[in-house]
Amino acid sequence: MAIQKSAPAVDGVQSFRLPDVGEGLIEAELLSWYVKPGDEIKVNQMICEIETAKAVVELPSPFAGTVRELLAEEGQTVDVGAVIITVDDGTGGSASGADPGAEDGGDTEVREKPLVGYGEKAASTQRRARRRPAPSAPSSPPVPPSAAPPAPAPAVVAVPAAPAPASGPAGRPLAKPPVRKLAKDLGVDLGSVAPTGDGGIVTRDDVRAAAEAVRAPAQAEPQPESAPAAPADRSARERRIPVKGVRKHTAAAMVGSAFTAPHVTEFLQVDVTKTMKAVARLRARPDFADVRVSPLLLVAKALLMAVRRHPEINATWDGDNQEIVVKDYVNLGIAAATERGLVVPNVKDADAMTLPELAAGLKRLTDTARAGKTSPADMSGGTITITNVGVFGVDAGTPILNPGEAAILAFGQIRDMPWVHKGELKVRKVTTLSLSFDHRLVDGELGSKVLRDIGTALEDPELTALAWG
């Protein structure tokens, strides 16, 4: 992945901006840094790992030199184009040198760190100082010289007023985003909180103190003996998981698919006893020694044979041109559940592969997905998908189409079940297949034929392979 410099060096300091590693991405989460300030790095050395809306990607450095500053924290979501790291390439002066702007008589530019952390931003040193309310002395009416002094009043102890919170634009109190979230969670109005942070910034301790001050009088009020106990704060027993990265992209894609394509799902129970015997025999063959042979491999092969017999199932709907686009190649997607959410990488040109090649392709995809290293290229261009719900002990489901595809096959768990075989009731290996398809371009007849062919191939894989090729 080639990454270009996005800005010229200033005094030998190179600024690296977060690139768009996909198509039209606007942000990414910085998962981890591989370097720290002071480290010497080389060109194309991996410096960090990010998670986009599609995949986890490592970013190489386009510069060589000494890491000067990291401008984004691990776990932070950063906009594409924001500076995330600066590197001193050794070609300029030191950071403490004179500012060239002073020679021109212009405003001196300084680097100011923002609150959120989307890189550095320039700010003029000629900003107006924030106005602070001057302490006002208590005023008293003038006393005429001839008037007798009044009788002494009871002593009153003066309580100094809490400093008013400093305000940002439009009178908004100054506070960092995590502090604002804490105030929202605790039901505290930031405008009523007395700030103690530098520059009049409201801190976490300020918010907690304000929440305690509100809670204390309420707890001090006597409660009637018959009144029920107040319920405990449930927020302390709740966990909030940010929706971002792959999970955010998947959620948007599934909503778009569910409400765009009219889904139809058909089910078929299949005796896969012969398939399980074929799996056992394949595992003993030398040409499958380095790959994992599972029932999913033969399910994938059965789907590919059905697509060859009914190519219209391997299509997409072009709404702009009002056309059905039938694809004469199969990029077979395999839905994989990972810690970062559901990903659907695909084996390119799976229809042209031999069975050992297909097994190797499936292994590579699953290993990469489990490691969280699936690339955007592996997840783009899919034409038809399989989701293996059987690994979770599930018999069947109604899978949602991967956006842009016409069909998706769900493969349920394989169980021992009573089955009529050759006129007798026997215990056989049985599974349930579920085929969801887009009813705009796949009618019931085509969907049923495809599902039936997949079932036939799994009932007798060896004979079907000989008959269909």
Please describe the structure with a list of short key phrases separated by commas or semicolons.
eight-stranded mixed beta sheet; 469 residues; alpha+beta; 20 strands; disordered N terminus; 10 helices; 25% helix
Major sheet:
8 strands, mixed
The geometry reads as globular
Give me the strand/helix succession.
EEEEEEEEHEEHHHEHHEEEEEHHEEEEHH
Beta-strand proportion: 15-25%
Helicity, in percent?
A: 10-25%
How many beta-strand runs?
A: 20
Q: How far from one another are the termini?
A: 39 Å
Description of the structure:
By secondary structure, this protein is an alpha+beta fold. It is 25% helix and 23% strand. Strands 11, 14, 15, 16, 17, 18, 19 and 20 form an 8-stranded mixed β-sheet that branches. Strands 1-8-6-3 form a 4-stranded antiparallel β-sheet, with no helix packed on it. The chain has a 4-stranded antiparallel β-sheet with strand order 5-4-2-7, with no helix packed on it. The longest helix is centred in the middle third of the chain and has 17 residues, at 204-220. It starts with 12 loop residues before the first strand and ends with a helix. Mean pLDDT is 79; it is low at 1-5, 94-149 and 151-162.
